[in-house]
Amino acid sequence: MKNDFFKDSKIKYPAYEPWISNDDKKILNKTLGQSMLTLGPQLEKFESDFCKYTKSKYAIAVTNCTAALHLSLKAIGIKENDEVIIPDLTFVADANAILACNAKPVIVDINKDNFFLSPSEIKKNITKKTKAILPVHIYGQVCNIDEILDVAKDNNLKVIEDCAHAVGTFHKSKHAGTMGSTGCFSFYPTKNITTAEGGMVITNSKSIAEKVRQLRSHGMTRSLKSRYSSGYPWVFDILEPGYNYRLDEIRASLGISQLRRIKKINELRKKASTYYNKNLQDIPGIILPNIVNDRSHSYHLYTIRVTKDFKLSRNQLYKKFKNHGITTTVYWMPIHKYTAYRKFAKKSNVINTTKAYEEILGLPLFPNISKKHQDAVIKVIKSVKN
Question: What are the two backbone dihedrals, phi and then psi, of residue 116, each rounded to the nearest 5 degrees?
Answer without folding.
Answer: -80, 150
